[in-house]
Design goal:
This protein is flat. It has four helices and no strands. It folds into two domains: about 30 residues; about 70 residues. By secondary structure, the chain is an all-alpha fold.
């Protein structure tokens, strides 16, 4: 039975990310690039450890926990204001502005917490 030249089944073309220039395909060049990137990673790690250690000597369990508590408090403030604002179908413009201010404060403190968490995860800070 003929199917009219159609292929039955599925074909999925994957992402092509192995295309390289002739220079990049050269194994010695690839090795030099890999070596360069490994050296840069080590230098960046050292720089981060030095700078973070010098600039944030008080980053420890207590300060990290205090920051986590502040994030929780700001989240609660934001949600509390939203719940209060939901009591009115047409909230006062000042209440809307206050809600936006509370959201911004919460989101900024959360971003700081996440940045500090990354510093700790990567070992940039010496924890006592």
């Amino acid at each position: 039975m003929a199917t009219g030249g159609k292929i039955i089944g599925e074909y999925t073309k994957g992402k092509v990310d192995k295309l390289m220039t002739a220079d990049a395909a050269d194994s010695s060049r690839s090795q030099r690039i890999r070596h360069f990137l490994e050296n840069m990673d080590a230098a960046i790690l050292e720089a981060n450890c030095e700078v973070i250690g010098r600039e944030l000597p008080t980053l420890n369990r207590d300060t990290f926990l205090r920051m986590a508590v502040r994030v929780a408090e700001l989240r609660a403030d934001y949600i509390h204001a939203g719940l209060k604002m939901s009591e009115s179908r047409h909230p006062d413009p000042a209440a809307v502005s206050e809600l936006a201010r509370l959201r911004a404060a919460y989101e900024e403190m959360l971003a700081v917490y996440e940045a500090a968490e990354r510093v700790i995860e990567r070992g940039y800070a010496k924890l006592g």
